[in-house]
Structure formats: C-alpha cells, structure tokens
Amino acid sequence: MTVQTPPPMAGSTIEAAFSGRLGNFALDASFSVPARGVTGLFGPSGCGKTSVLRCAAGLNRLQGTFSIDGEVWQDDKTFRPTHRRPIGYVFQEASLFPHLSVRQNLLFGAPGRQPPSSATGTSFEEVIELLGIGDLLARSTSNLSGGERQRVAIGRALLSQPKLLLMDEPLSALDRQTKDGVLPFLERLHDRLAMPVLYVSHDIAEVERLADHLVLMQAGKVLAAGPLAELQADPNLPLAASREAVVSLDAVVESYDASFGLARLAVAGGHFEIPAAAGAPGTRRRIRIAAGDVSLTRRPPEGTTIINILPVRILSETPVGAHETLLVLRLGENGEGARLLSRVTRRSWHHLQLEVGQKLYAQIKGVALTPASAA
Ligand SMILES: Nc1ncnc2c1ncn2[C@@H]1O[C@H](COP(=O)(O)OP(=O)(O)OP(=O)(O)O)[C@@H](O)[C@H]1O
User: Fold this and answer.
1) Is the CB of 142 under 6 A from ligand 1?
2) Per residue in 61-79, pLDDT tens?
3) Which residues form the Mop domain (predicted)?
4) How far is the CA of 152 from the centre of ligand 1 (A)?
5) Closest residue to atom 1 of ligand 1, CA basis
6) Number of continuous H segments (helices) and E segments (strands) in the chain
7) Whole-prediction pTM
C-alpha cells in the first residue's frame, strides 16, 4: 500500500498521512491543514476519526508520516513514541486521578508539576479563568459533575504545555444541557489560545461552532480537507447536499443600533444586520446561515419584514433529490464575496428562468451568531 504525502502548504502546517490495517479496518488518510486554530475531523461513526487521532498521538503505529510545524514525529525512518510527542489528549470521558484534588490533577502533567506562568507558556491562571474552574481547585474529583470533570481534563491537557491538542469527542459523553454548558468554554479557548487542535466529532453543530478547518472522512479515507466554509459550500461534498446544509461565515462587527437592537456585521462581499448585541466594533464573530433560510428574488423586494436582502450571483446549480436543486451563491454585485447556499425547488429554478452567473437578491430569513474564529 502506498502512502501519498499531501503537497506541502505555505506557512506552518500539520502534515498527516497514515495507511494500514487495524483489524478488518483499512485506513488510508492523508491531509494537510494549518497548524493553528481548530481542525475538525468529521465523519460518520466508524469512519476512522479516532484512529487518525491515535496515529497522530503515536498510539497506533501505521505506515505514514506526521509532522507539525516542520517537526517530524513520524516518517519512513522516524517514529517518536507517545511520551516523546508534546501532545495533550482529551478523551470522551475524563480520566482524572480520584486520590488527587482538582488542583493536583491539573498540575499532574505540568512541567515540574508547578503552576506554569505566562512566561513559560499557557499560564495556570489563564487556564483556570478560561475554563471557569477556580472554585473547584480544592475539591476532590470524585464528586464533580460530568461537565466539571471534562473541563478539568481539558485544563490538565493544556497545562502540560502541548504543541498540539488532540480532542476525541470531548462532549459526547455529556447530556445535551451539560454539553451546551461546556461548549462556550471551548469557544473561549478557541478564541484565546494559539495552540492547534485536532478535534474529532460526529456532531456537525459542534464542528460549525468550533472548527476553522475541516477534514471530512468516510470509510477510512479523507474525502476533503480545507477551510470549514469552503467545504460546507462544496456541492460535491455531503455537507452541502444534506437537508441541514449551512455555511459559517467569519464576520467583523461594524456598529450597533441600540434603538432597534441591531448589530451590523461585515463579511466578504456584504453586510448583515442581526438582532443581537454582537460586541464592540472590530469584534470577530461567526455567522451561520442555513441553505433552507435563503430564498431568491429577481428584483429587490419591497414591503418585506426580512432584514437581510443582499445582491448575489449564482455560482453553480446542482440538482438534489427529485424536486430540489442546490445553488451556490456568491455575495456582492459582481459575485466576488463569501459563498452562501440556497436550496430551492426545481419548479422555482425553471419558473424564474434562473441560470448560473445570473445576478439575484438573496433574502435571508435567519442569521445566527456563533462565537469568533481564531483562524
Ligand atoms: N486496534 C484496532 N483493532 C481492530 N479494529 C480497530 C482498531 N482500532 C479501530 N478499529 C476499527 O476501525 C474502525 C474505525 O474506528 P474509529 O474509532 O477510528 O472510528 P470513528 O470514526 O472514530 O468512530 P466513532 O465516531 O464511532 O468513534 C472501526 O470499525 C473500529 O472497530
């Protein structure tokens, strides 16, 4: 079996290529992503996400290569064992030491078991504050809630000062309410820490909120890897074709109209107004727009309650199912901006005599804010 090393990318990258068998399962996965921000490894159950993470950690030894920022952890000649890889690993269920306090657990992997200062990397105070675990430090780990345990496990991983954080479905063992409580902490980490993260999940909502880049996997192979928004809007990939298709756009707050409670945010090729306090001007936020919330009109509509109506051009049209079609749109008069998706009936496509390249107006019924991107 040959391993194809992905072409190198400019700047600091994670280069991964693993190939071989795990029991009956054949893994043949390679990707190259920036060594910054969160890279989501996403795909259906059993497609090989955890196996890739374990390869990156040196826990699975398959043929291949792995390097981060030019530092080779594995190739034809090299195989660094797990204890020589500067990684933090967060599992589905936190395995904390029951005989140690939260504070001792946190410091367990820290260099010299001492609280690191910002001079030596991610500081103890910063981690405590980011994860909201200051009140837990003296507690025993035996009676922490699931969400608290997971936050302590993440803190412990961060305090070991890793070069790469590996997270394997860190929220999947939590109930929906606890998960919703922990997600904002992950989002804050994402905003504030520069450390690259490989984040395994089969929950697309988590990926949309946290990931900057995506590695889409299926049956042991990588279908595509790249910036989240690009893969979301690729009509040849399963994300865009799904009924729940969305795009996540990185936006910057421009202003806030307090009288109507509307924030104005700029994205490439347009502006959105959102009924929320989105932060001070200059704040980076992420916007989520579902394909089903974007309808099209030939002329700017009048007398509508829809706030966001933006000029777009049709970039492509791909039939989905028997009666619908997926349109990839680009924002802006000349179609030079960010991509949106719109799912319309084939009847509308024909009746409105739409065609690729045409200028239209997108009426966007729902625009949701999610936290900022670090990429
Ligand atoms: N050491 C091993 N020996 C035998 N089979 C293995 C081994 N490791 C993984 N597998 C198999 O490889 C396949 C992929 O597993 P993996 O855990 O990587 O998938 P996944 O995408 O992370 O799935 P999930 O989302 O359900 O966690 C599974 O069929 C699993 O049983």
Assistant:
1) no
2) 999 999 999 999 999 999 9
3) 303-373
4) 26
5) 22
6) 9, 20
7) 0.88
